[in-house]
Each structure stands twice: as C-alpha cells, then as structure tokens.
C-alpha cells in the first residue's frame, strides 16, 4: 500500500469513528477511568427485568473489524439481546483500534475494564466471580489474548466466548498495516497468537465457547485453537455452522446496512447462533456459585 493510500485509509477510519460516536445506542455510553491512561470507551447494558438483589454475571464484548474498523455501536442489538435473555450485565468495549495503538493495547483496555467493574461490583450489582470476555473475529483474538493476560495477572474468568476468532495472526495474509498492529512480533507472543502458545501458557484457561463458520478463512484457526484447549483439559463447547459466512452474527443485525453477506438464510443461522450462545453462557454462569 502506497503512503498516500495509507493516509486516505486512516482518514476514512477517523471519519467513520466520528460518525459512530454520534450514533444513538440502546445502552449507556461510559468511559472506564484508568490511572495515568486514556479511559476505555464502553457501552453498558442491563436487562429490562432483574430479580431484586440479583447480582448479574458480566460479559465484556469485543466487535470485529480486522483490528482497524468497526465500532461497538454495530453490536448494540446483540448486546441488548444477551443482556435480556441470559440475563447479564454487558460491557460492550469500543477498544482502541490498531492504527492508533498496537493490538496489545486493546487487550490491556479489556483487562483494565474487567478490573474496574470487579472493584465496583456492589455499585453495579454484578457478580465479580461471574465475569467473562467474548469477541467476534478480530475481537475474538482480543478476547482470547485478554483471557490469557487476565489469567497471567491472577484473574480467573467464568468463561470466554470466541466467535470465529483469529488465533494465529501469522496465518493471515500480510497487509501493510500488520507491522504497526503487532509491533511486538505477532508470531512470538502468546497474547497475539494464542494458537502458537506453549502448552503451559494455555493450560488452566477458563472454559471456552466457540462459534465456527464453514465459509471462513479463519475456520481452521478457530478449530485448531479449540482442539488445543481440549487437549489441555480446558472445558470447551463448540458449534460449527457449515453454511455460515464470516461475520454472519454481526452483519445480519439491524445496525448493518447493505452488506452483501446478508440474506434470509444467513439471518436464520444468526438467530440460531444467538440462541446457542445465550444457552451456553447461561449454563457457564450457572456453574459458578453466588
């Protein structure tokens, strides 16, 4: 990519982010404070109905977009659905994109957000022992890396939701932006490419729930990572949709318009996958004692 093309891309991304920031959302926009660092932009969702005194489980959700695109607002209705039907407290993370900070920075944002809400569990009526991370595509890679980073820091999650995740960024076609997205060497860090991590780094990770697309260049990575976790006795649930296109859960939502991947068939698969995720997340949280 020529430098002029790169600059055009970056300007287009900046304009898109400015537009996303003006969109109305169902949840509540919030900035997670961090000492000495820029706060983390998130959107918060609570169920319409909750039992008196009920402490809700928590899911930190990360959208896709190849690390440089997309926005948390594009998963607004997905987060509403999970909040109401699990029920759960959803933290929809609008992580810093890779053209601004390396991907590892986004993982640190997730970890700091988890720590903040764990420390303020009583204020939000949430269960600190029932926290989970989840993401889609590039967001799945961020979630997987954050789960490992949190475990290394002593935080045990209830589970991790990995929806057609990237787990080995060295397998992706090398784009011009990859060097600034992964300056610390994508093939050398367990956080960036957990599929390549040593067994001792992955053993003992929190249970994982996988959604895999049949028509997807990331399919092999997701399956391979699930198998590695299974071999290391990490509890894994996995469901593959052979006819699903990459991104089918996101693009068939009302926030997406004009995406060529949308179709009635893909929408039915999307709804089934939503039901599966709600069922498995609910079961995962139920295994934790109050």
UniProtKB/TrEMBL annotation:
GO terms for molecular function: hydrolase activity. SUPFAM superfamilies: alpha/beta-Hydrolases. It holds the Pfam family Abhydrolase_3. Keywords: Hydrolase. Residues 60-249 form the Alpha/beta hydrolase fold-3 domain. This is Alpha/beta hydrolase fold-3 domain-containing protein.
């Amino acid at each position: 990519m020529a430098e002029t093309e790169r600059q055009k891309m970056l300007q287009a991304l900046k304009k898109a982010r400015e537009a996303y920031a003006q969109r109305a959302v169902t949840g509540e926009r919030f900035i997670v404070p961090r000492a000495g660092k820029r706060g983390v932009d998130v959107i918060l969702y609570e169920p319409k109905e909750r039992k008196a005194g009920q402490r809700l489980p928590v899911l930190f959700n990360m959208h896709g977009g190849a690390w440089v695109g997309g926005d948390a607002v594009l998963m607004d209705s997905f987060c509403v659905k999970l909040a109401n039907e699990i029920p759960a407290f959803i933290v929809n993370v609008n992580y810093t994109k890779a053209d601004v900070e390396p991907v590892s920075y986004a993982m640190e944002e997730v970890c700091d957000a988890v720590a903040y809400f764990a420390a303020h569990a009583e204020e939000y009526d949430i269960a600190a022992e029932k926290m989970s991370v989840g993401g889609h595509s590039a967001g799945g890679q961020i979630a997987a890396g954050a789960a490992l980073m949190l475990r290394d820091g002593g935080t045990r999650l209830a589970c991790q939701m990995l929806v057609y995740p990237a787990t080995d960024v060295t397998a992706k076609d090398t784009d011009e932006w990859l060097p600034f997205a992964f300056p610390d060497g994508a093939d050398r860090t367990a956080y960036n490419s957990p599929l390549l991590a040593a067994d001792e780094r992955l053993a003992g990770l929190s249970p994982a729930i996988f959604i895999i697309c049949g028509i997807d260049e990331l399919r092999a990575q997701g399956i391979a990572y699930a198998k590695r976790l299974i071999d290391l006795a990490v509890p894994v649930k996995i469901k593959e949709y052979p006819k699903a296109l990459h991104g089918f859960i996101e693009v068939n939502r009302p926030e997406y318009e004009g995406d060529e991947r949308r179709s009635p068939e893909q929408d039915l698969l999307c709804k089934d996958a939503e039901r599966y995720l709600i069922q498995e997340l609910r079961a995962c949280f139920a295994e934790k004692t109050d």
